[in-house]
Amino acid sequence: MNFVRSAGMNPPGIAPFPAVHPREVLLGAQAAALWLPVCDHYSGVEARMRKSLQLQAEMIEEFGACVFDVTLDCEDGAPVGGEADHAAMVVSLAALAGDKARVAVRVHAVDHPAFESDMATIAGQAASRLSHIMIPKVDCIADVLKAEQALLAASAGELPLHVLIESPLAVRNAFEIAAHPRVQSLSFGLMDFVSSHGGAIPADAMSSQGQFTHPLVVCAKLEIASACHAYGKVPSHCVVTEFNDAAALTLAARRAARELGYTRMWSIHPGQIRTILEAFAPSEADIENATKIIAAGARADWAPISFDGNLHDRASYRYFWQVLERAHQTGSVLPPDAQVYFQAALV
């Protein structure tokens, strides 16, 4: 990804386009994964799918960028015996999405009778319209390989996979799963994880508060986040089922982002989307400070500098650049010196 300078290209008050983008200098293999929106919104019923796609289009217009994914759900959304019709409907809806939209599909698990037909229909007919495919109930790398083969059979070999970690075995294999080059993100499936323990974990561990206190749940979340960060993938936090409780959602999202290292989170109700965006967004003070440090680093050609009495080098530049990436992903207002890095002047 290269930036070019061009006379008259920069809007009034905006700094010139940089010759080298910080993403190229500072992030390396992590650059692609960091571009995922921080919110992944799930819909399983056609009417709600249509409303979700419409809301996404409206918020793209509002923010000038896609700030959340819409994932059309076949696993929980398809009626028993109606899986093929549901998959065909999902394909038709994906075709309606605009150019800036990000639409994904959750298919059935690899051992489900409808998995192969899901992949043949959805990946085979809608790959060019999809951002990724979510594979639920992945326990081991063999499940990822089976999903990859289904993509190849559908001539959708470039489509990324997101995987849902829902069992103790899957947590045990999280690092190997995250290492696979086609896997872009790992999500934690809270309710299935709790229920897979045969009653050994109490139901309260599925609540917005209990999921941050039960040791086995917290351990699983940390293992998934660590596996993702080890391989430059995106850890996606689980749902908050109390979807009418904005305070509970805000607290859970902030804890996921600030304590457990998650950079993305599921939404299961349209009312949760903006709350998740706000919770994952950096503060205005953090954005302003990051902008100043990145500007100073760029002027020094990314050599070490002293800034406000503190040493900064490429390690800290990387952190402050990620603050600006997160601000952009959440629709935050950026200062002019930061806006320049997100202008549409790419070649």
**Envelope shape:** globular
Average pLDDT figure? 90
Total beta strands: 10
Task: Give the CATH level 1 class of the largest domain.
Answer: Alpha Beta
Q: Secondary-structure element sequence?
A: HEHEHEHEHEHHEHHEHEHHEEHH
Q: Number of domains in the coordinates?
A: 2
Classify the helix fraction into a percent range.
40-55%
- Please list the strands of the largest sheet in the order they lie side by side: 1-2-3-4-5-6-7-8
The name CATH uses for the topology of the largest domain is TIM Barrel
Architecture overview:
- With 347 residues, this protein is an alpha/beta fold.
- Helix content is 44%, strand content 13%.
- The chain has 14 helices and ten strands.
- The strands form two sheets. It has an eight-stranded parallel barrel, surrounded by five helices. A two-stranded antiparallel sheet has the order 9-10.
- The radius of gyration is 21 Å and the shape is globular.
Helix and strand topology:
Elements: H1 22-26, E1 39-43, H2 46-63, E2 68-73, H3 83-94, E3 103-106, H4 115-126, E4 132-135, H5 141-153, E5 161-165, H6 168-172, H7 174-179, E6 183-188, H8 190-195, H9 215-230, E7 234-237, H10 246-258, E8 264-267, H11 270-280, H12 284-299, E9 305-307, E10 310-312, H13 314-329, H14 336-339
Parallel strand pairs: 1-2, 1-8, 2-3, 3-4, 4-5, 5-6, 6-7, 7-8
Antiparallel strand pairs: 9-10
Helix pairs in contact: 3-4, 4-5, 10-11, 12-13
